[in-house]
Amino acid sequence: MERVVTSGAATEVTLKPKDYKSDIKPVWCPGCGDFSVLAAITRALAALKVAPENVAVISGIGCSSRIPAYLDTYGFHGAHGRALPLATGLKISRPDLCVLVAGGDGDGFSIGGNHFLQVCRRNVDITYIVMDNQVYGMTKGQASPTTEPDWDRSKLTPHGTRINAFYPLVVALASGANFIARASSSDPNGAAKVIGEAIGHPGFSFVQVLSPCVTFRPEQRDWKKIVRPAPIEATTDPAAAARRLMTDDNFYLGVLYKGNRAPFEPDSAGQPSTEQELEEEFKV
Amino acid sequence: MNAIDVTERPGFLAYALAIENEAVERYTTFAEQMDVTNNREAAELFREMARLETLHAKEIEARIGGQTLPEGASCEYAWPDGESPEAPDFSDTHYLMTPYQALTLVLEAEQRAVEFFETIERAGTDEAVRKMAAEFAKEEREHVRRVRQWRERYPPPERDWDDDPDPPNQAE
Ligand SMILES: Cc1ncc(C[n+]2csc(CCOP(=O)(O)OP(=O)(O)O)c2C)c(N)n1
Ligand code: SF4
After folding, report:
1. What is the DSSP letter of A136?
2. A226 vs chain B: nearest CA distance in angstroms?
3. Which of A124, B89, B106, B134 is most exposed, with the fewest beta carbons within 10 Å of its own?
């Protein structure tokens, strides 16, 4: 794994993955894929040798969004769907920090869907990890944007949603994300490598982690038998990435796209730099 | 990226230690999961496994003594199946799992550890490493035997072991 963390955080430390965990014990259901994603994040941070105090993990609401509490880094458990704008603001004001955003498919693509588009366009140097279980776990099993149209196990959609599923990787590519990858909670080390690479890549990096909800989508326990490495290397060519995504069955793992857009730099010329100057602007 | 060479003595010891440490971590996580869901029997069992694996880790540390080993996070080891062999899969726990099922996970993990060391014993190029691998494989075979005996104390799960008339989470 690369040792250079471009997402801020220059000081190197040698810690074990468990040193990045807090003392708070997860309340996820046993078997939930999010346990593995938590392990993958701690392994990636340990491999990158980034100091916990130089990392901030921002989330919204959902089972997966509990993750900042389980990490011994800085964290912010924000409002539902609003993790990305929070993280954007943080990274712009503290470019030295390694800023990660973590959450679920409901949080990220329903209520937070428009932020997802704008953050891909803006290309701020943050890493977004979505634990995709194609369901709202926390609110007890409703369909999410990534749910298949014929999934009929929720009382709210007894005949399925009957609308197209949302394909986050395609949307990320079309909207300008600079790094796009898919990992699986069935392979925490594979996920750790991808997350590490995403953190190291400049600009907005998006990692979808297939992370089963064993309670409301127990059939997802079988995902581990279906996932496999993508046969093609990561590309820097968006057209080639688009062609590959169009033939993707959502179970190919690996880094799909590594763009070379320069990360967003705020234009600070003429902007207030002190609290007093800021207050001046809002004076009535 | 994978700088840790299992075919040389320091690398081999690093792998052997990582196997035990990962098992300790995994069983601790599983014990905590079972605590949270109030499955006391499985919690105790996983806690006991974490304790035993800690002892194994200490034994390996004693062997290592003052030697410097290559360092790396778990994702920098080239495990045969992607994950350390003695750490059961995160997705294999269930809040209603029985002691028999918990010990089956342990048994499978110990069997994978046997295979790991036997492979090095067969394919290793360094004689000292092959000897150590043979020794570790023998120890792991002994763990398999003991876990199997331990499991015999419990009945296999009934057909409807996961039926729960009042589940903690129900679709709404
Ligand atoms: C503004 C607002 N609307 C709705 C909710 C209810 N709510 C909480 S979590 C959630 C969705 C969770 O799904 P997801 O983000 O996929 O996470 P998971 O629980 O599956 O990990 C919803 C709709 C809320 N907390 N706040
Ligand atoms: S409800 Fe689903 S997503 Fe939430 S903790 Fe349980 S298994 Fe995980």
Report:
1. B
2. 15
3. B134
- Provide the residue ranges of all domains of chain A, joining segments of one domain with +: 27-281
pLDDT, tens digit, 9 for 90 and up, residues A24-67: 999 999 999 999 999 999 999 999 999 999 999 999 999 999 99
- B2-151 is classed CATH 3.40.50.300: no
Q: 0.80 cut: is pTM over it?
A: yes
Looking at this predicted complex, what is its ipTM? Answer: 0.96
Give the CATH number of domain A27-281; options: 3.40.50.720, 3.30.310.10, 1.10.3720.10, 3.40.50.970: 3.40.50.970
When the pLDDT of each residue in chain A is averaged and rounded to a whole number, the result is: 94
CA distance to A19, A51, B132, B155, per residue, from A3 (Å): 18, 12, 32, 50
Tokens of B155: 């009945």
Token look-up 């279906």 returns: A226
Query: Is residue B85 very low, low, confident or very high in pLDDT (cuts 50, 70, 90)?
Result: very high
Q: Which residues of B touch A30 (CB under 8 A)?
A: 30, 33-34, 36-37, 93-95, 97
